[in-house]
Amino acid sequence: MHVSNLILPLLTLSVTTTAVSALHITPQHKKALAAQKISEPAKREGVLAAAHKNKVKRLVKKKKRQSCQVRYNATSIVTSSTAEETASTTSIVGDDASAIPTLTNNENWANATATQTSSSVYETASTTADDWGFSSASSSSSPQPSSTTSAETSQSTSSWSKVEEWSGNSFFDNVNFWEWNDPTHGTVDFLGASDAWNSGLISINSNKRAVMAVDTTQVVSGGRKSIRIHGNRVFTGGLVLMDAYHMPDGCGTWPAWWQNGPNWPEGGEIDILEGVNAFTQNQVSLHTGQGCTMPSDLNSNQVGSLTTGSYNSYDCSSTNTANQGCGVRDETTQNAYGSGFNSIGGGVYAMRWSKAGIAVWFFPRSNIPSDITNDSPDPSSWGKAMANFPSDNCDPYQFFYDHYNIFDTTLCGDWAGADGVWNYAGYAGQDQSCAAKTGYSTCADYVLNSGSSFADAYWEVSYVKYFNSTTEV
Ligand SMILES: *[C@@H]1O[C@H](CO)[C@@H](O)[C@H](O)[C@H]1NC(C)=O
Ligand SMILES: *[C@@H]1O[C@H](CO)[C@@H](O)[C@H](O)[C@H]1NC(C)=O
Ligand SMILES: *[C@@H]1O[C@H](CO)[C@@H](O)[C@H](O)[C@H]1NC(C)=O
Predict the structure, then answer these.
(1) What is the pTM of this model?
(2) Looking at ligand 1, which atom is closest to the CA of residue 99?
(3) What structural domains does the chain harbor?
(4) Residue 460 catalytic?
């Protein structure tokens, strides 16, 4: 419908115009690209994969977990357990923005236990969390972490109290694993929890940091194994800190640490740390329903700059801008992304979602404020944010709600793998094109045949911490 119609001309542009145009369109419209209908080969591949896995029930219920990039044709969701073949087919191919199903139970959107009983449509599901879809990395059936539920350290001026922490051995207890096709069409094979552990792609290292890696087998077919995790709790408002020592980097990679709400784009999307290939600059983006706009003086109150696209950059609405949204790229801060980030042992990203609006800061390892290390964060002392989206014309609780946190490393796909991006140089801090750097003319060929190149494509995360406030939120 309207979204798709707007998107299609852009898709055409992105593959037929010069690299410059395509590049400037593609990052802006990466989510739009993801919203396009799956191609015929992809459909067939998806259907075959589904038949092979024989996880029809998961696929039917996959609708429940649609992210911004995943739309399912609600009318194709089959309610009868006898129609498994149809269900597996239509729920995969029904990737059309015209029929985004309405989820009435947003609070339980990321909660397997609750969703189990929230809709009669899903009554054919078995009662285990695994069959419901997501697999849990821990043997515990509780979606809640067993510890770290309150802030023990709070004597500073911070008005924020810790409400959740993912760290150490329990890091993966707080997440679910996405083990279906990549909604952004990457050359990846996302693993479920047990496969992720067994293959060694996730681990807790000797420094008690969570590692999420990419398979380095030299030659693979179909897709390279990787990880995508979703937090199992939803939040509305709050302050989230993420401390990483390393992030995926290099040609072919498209890593992101981000948040998403239900009924996309109505529940909003906040991309906190994201980029592709050998970029060295981070881009923070908002994608919203209609009505959220940014003031004309936006750039004077942030370190980064609003990217310019084919549509009004100040309008964050996905519908009005063919999913361009409001993107802020930071060309100034050193070592905030990719190889630079890794060279300094990373640092802390912070995202504050409060009455004042949504803002993102980055602190390199050597310059992490003591209020952060003391678990008593005080954003008012942090100085100018990398990206600072004020609430003036964008109510942060109208346009954003019920978000869960996501880490993923996809490879190629709609952004990293787009021809114009793969072949382009001189953008977001990347001087040489990946085609030139790798000698491969396509991203997918490189990813499938050059596993050793992906040794650096891993996240090494010390913690994710959520804080809440009775005065700021
Ligand atoms: C949704 O799926 C149904 C059943 O497969 C199909 O008849 C209908 O055309 C689809 N709608 C759209 C908009 O794709
Ligand atoms: C999940 O849903 C159950 C049942 O409604 C509820 O008791 C539990 O607190 C929820 N867990 C989370 C993490 O929201
Ligand atoms: C903060 O508290 C509000 C109100 O209880 C809740 O809706 C929100 O999800 C909380 N956010 C976090 C990060 O805990």
Answers:
(1) 0.70
(2) 13
(3) 2-128 (no CATH), 161-468 (2.60.120.200)
(4) no
